[in-house]
Write a structure and sequence with these properties.
Helix content: 40-55%
Number of helices: 5
Strand content: 15-25%
Number of domains: 1
CATH architecture: 3-Layer(aba) Sandwich
Largest sheet: 4 strands, mixed
CATH class: Alpha Beta
Order of helices and strands: EHEHEEHHH
CATH superfamily: Metalloproteases ("zincins"), catalytic domain
CATH topology: Collagenase (Catalytic Domain)
Strand order of the largest sheet: 1-2-4-3
Length: about 160
């Protein structure tokens, strides 16, 4: 199961329901692509202040970012499913990146969700070979979703 929620401040955003649904669909497609469709995870749509706080506390970087992943790799005692972890996505950052690159916020959110799920599943982009594999899988999932973004819009 994929648990998707947004910070309370976004409850009045007219696009929130669409954003949350798209995040869930993207995360599920990614799980299916990596053959972990029964795994569980959570996604929080947050503001820059929240994601900056987590970035500072857990990565030592006192700046906002677009997406953070916190792998858990535990079993959910209630469902017996593997709990991969938690993803936090900055909605303002996703919207700004979408505007800067000329694609929709929904496409950017899909990119960030897929990217975050891949990190939870152990994919990384620190080494060139790992980056190529992660980017290829990310591009394939995005293409399967019909997302306009094919290559990474991430600066990493």
């Amino acid at each position: 199961m994929i648990y998707v929620q947004a910070e309370e401040r976004y409850e009045t955003d007219r696009d929130l329901e669409v954003y949350l649904h798209r995040l869930e669909v993207a995360a599920q497609a990614c799980l299916e692509a990596i053959h972990q469709q029964d795994a569980e995870l959570s996604i929080l749509l947050a503001d820059d202040e929240t994601i900056q706080r987590f970035n500072r506390e857990y990565r030592g970087l006192d700046a906002p970012t677009d997406v953070l992943s916190f792998p858990a790799g535990e079993m959910d005692p209630e469902s017996g499913a593997q709990y991969l972890g938690d993803i936090i996505i900055s909605l303002p950052r996703a919207q700004a990146q979408a505007a800067a690159t000329g694609h929709s916020p929904l496409d950017e959110l899909q990119l960030l969700a897929v990217h975050g799920v891949l990190h939870l599943a152990g994919y990384d982009h620190a080494a060139a070979q790992d980056k190529a594999a992660m980017w290829a899988l990310q591009a394939q999932v995005l293409a399967d979703l019909g997302c306009a973004i094919r290559g990474p819009a991430l600066s990493e």
